[in-house]
Design a protein that fits this description.
Layout: H1 19-39, H2 46-61, E1 65-66, E2 69-73, E3 79-87, E4 99-108, H3 110-113, E5 120-126, E6 135-140, H4 147-156, E7 176-188, E8 191-208, E9 211-222, E10 232-240, E11 249-260, H5 261-269, E12 275-288, E13 291-305, E14 314-325, E15 330-338, E16 346-354, E17 363-371, H6 372-380, E18 391-402, E19 425-438, E20 441-444, E21 450-460, E22 467-474, E23 481-486, E24 491-499, H7 501-511, E25 532-540, E26 548-550
Parallel strand pairs: 5-7, 6-7
Antiparallel strand pairs: 1-3, 2-3, 3-4, 4-5, 4-6, 7-8, 8-9, 9-10, 10-11, 11-12, 12-13, 13-14, 14-15, 15-16, 16-17, 17-18, 18-19, 19-20, 19-21, 21-22, 22-23, 23-24, 24-25, 25-26
Length: 565
């Protein structure tokens, strides 16, 4: 009997290669090529197409648009490369172009080709191969109008379908517009400001027929300084349609993060103010562009002076609110609250602030039971000689007003580091001192807290006398005065008035040690039973052997009456 062979041992001829499976792919590719060849001829007249694209963009923006060259590409998606795109400016705002981009990539919506209507899905402003970045110039002229105002209003009156709408309709779909590595410049009237936003990434699209969505990120820069580590600015939110600029609805969120204090000061003022730390801030705008609700939070972490690293770094926070009119760049009813460890924070307020000239706005600082320990923490940022054991017990109340007058004296030339020209401060402070502890000693000023009213004036002066703060106490017995004068290289303290033994001890143990050197040598060993008249003058930093001198004090002038805000 014959045993059948195992099926695995039976040899079968190899099946033919799946040629038929490849044929549909080859046919599809051939049909696509034929289709592209069929669609391309109407677009071959590049010169006519260039004029048509420029004309359509001009009508959309309300500004003349010029293109040097348009080239066609079919892969990876059909589209155009626009070279040397220039959007001209309205002569009312100058003659520098609003937008300039050496290279723009525009991708077509393929479905629009069937209707012989050019419709773009994306428009990308990119850095060209030579490294030239797109640029945008934002201008506010002398009449207070913005150059983007007409462009925004033109877009608001142009009907468009949402960017993500899948099928074409009677109105064209709004393209997804983006820019990478761009530069945004600012010009006020005829002056080109040193501020700009570099390496900016921008995106704009239409999620619904009545609302645009905008996203922006970039690095703030200042052309007249070498500020580097200035952090990152981000903005995102929505803008709506309106018949006029002030009525444009908005909901925007902005932030400025990872900025170093020294570089941030260079960015904002042009000088390094000598502060170190990190700046983090965020803000939100809601409502209408002409009357938007503004809320903002500022955080300064690891705050210190550049001269040395203190034992304790400060963290400062502030919460601010105002009504913002972005059309005329002003704030109204602006307030900032700064927690200081007391039940009520320090409050800075201003009724109206012109953001183009913020230092001219009258402002008021209100203090309510501010702990003296908090003030001493600030003092330790300026001197490393204050003993850690020194802890005053008491509080400070009062108000200071920043006047709206411009400084009378000219700015120093050259300006020293940290020079911030500003108007004068005036107002009144009330200090309540209970005791001061230095090491193992506690100096009680009285069985009950001593209250002293201070009239405060801050005046800005010349290069040799940059600023002077004069404090007058109002007491029933003898007035006392403290004058602090800031010069480019030192701070001078002058105290005039009578001091008791307890006050003299507190001055010697708590006030003079921060001056270093042999400051306490200027104080007498003892005080008469009544009081001792002092004319104490000290200098900081103290690079002399005797930073303080004392002589018989001349009569102290009576305090000036308080000037109420």
């Amino acid at each position: 009997m014959t045993t059948p062979e195992h099926t695995s041992d039976i040899e079968h001829p190899m099946p033919p290669r799946p040629v038929l499976r490849r044929r549909p792919v080859q046919i599809a590719i051939a049909l696509l090529v034929l289709l592209l060849l069929a669609l391309t001829p109407p677009l071959i007249n590049v010169s006519r197409l260039r004029l048509r694209i420029a004309s359509n963009m001009s009508r959309s923006l309300g500004r003349p648009v010029h293109l040097d060259r348009v080239s066609i590409h079919l892969l990876p998606m059909p589209g155009f490369t626009l070279e040397n795109l220039v959007v001209s400016e309205d002569p009312a705002f100058g003659y520098e172009p609003v937008i300039r981009a050496n290279q723009v990539e525009a991708t077509l919506r393929v479905s629009s080709l069937w209707r012989r209507h050019v419709e773009f899905s994306t428009i990308r402003f990119i850095v060209d191969p030579n490294g030239s970045a797109p640029s945008v110039n934002i201008v506010r002229n002398a009449q207070g109008r913005w150059n983007l105002e007409d462009i925004l209003m033109q877009a608001a009156h142009t009907e468009a379908a949402p960017t993500a709408q899948p099928k074409a309709g009677p109105t064209p779909r709004f393209p997804y517009i983006e820019a990478t590595g761009a530069r945004i410049n600012l010009k006020l009237s005829d002056e080109k400001m040193p501020f700009s936003l570099t390496e900016a990434d921008f995106a704009l699209w239409l999620p619904s027929p009545e609302q645009w969505h905008v996203r922006l990120q970039g690095k703030p820069a200042r052309t007249d300084t070498n500020a580097n580590d200035t952090g990152v600015v981000r903005l995102e939110g929505t803008l709506g349609r309106a018949t006029k600029l002030s009525d444009v609805p908005l909901d925007l969120t902005a932030s400025w993060a990872h900025a170093q204090m020294g570089e941030a000061a260079k960015l904002l003022t042009g000088n390094d103010a000598g502060w170190r730390g990190t700046v983090e801030t965020g803000a939100r705008l809601t409502g209408q562009l002409g009357a938007a609700k503004l809320t903002a939070d500022l955080h300064l972490t690891d705050l210190r002076r550049a001269d040395f690293v203190p034992a304790k770094l400060l963290d400062i926070s502030a919460h601010c609110s105002a009504t913002a009119n972005l059309a005329i760049v002003t704030l109204s009813d602006a307030t900032c609250a700064i927690p200081d460890g007391a039940a009520d924070p320090i409050v800075l307020s201003a009724s109206t602030v012109d953001l183009q000239k913020p230092t001219t706005a009258p402002a008021t600082i209100a203090l309510h039971q501010m702990p003296l320990t908090w003030a001493l923490d600030w003092a330790r940022l300026f001197s490393q000689h204050i003993p850690e054991s020194t802890q005053p017990i008491g509080s400070l109340d009062g108000d200071l007003t920043w006047t709206s007058t411009e400084p009378v004296l000219p700015h120093p030339d050259p300006q020293p580091r940290g020079w911030l020209p500003a108007p004068d401060w005036h107002g009144g402070l009330k200090s309540t001192f209970i005791s001061a502890t230095t090491g193992e000693n506690t100096y009680d000023f009285a069985t009950s807290p001593i209250t002293a009213d201070w009239a405060v004036e801050i005046a800005f002066g010349t290069t040799s006398r940059l600023a002077s703060i004069t404090l007058f106490t109002v007491t029933a017995t003898a007035p006392q005065s403290l004058v602090i004068t800031f010069t480019p290289d030192r701070t001078l303290f002058t105290f005039q008035g009578k001091a008791t033994q307890s006050q003299l001890a507190a001055i010697g143990d708590a006030i003079l040690p921060p001056l270093g050197g042999n400051a306490t040598a200027a104080l007498p060993a003892s005080v008469p039973a009544t009081a001792l008249t002092l004319n104490l003058q000290c200098s900081l930093p103290a690079d002399e052997a005797h930073p303080c001198t004392n002589s018989t004090a001349p009569p102290v002038p009576a305090p000036k009456p308080h000037r109420k805000p």
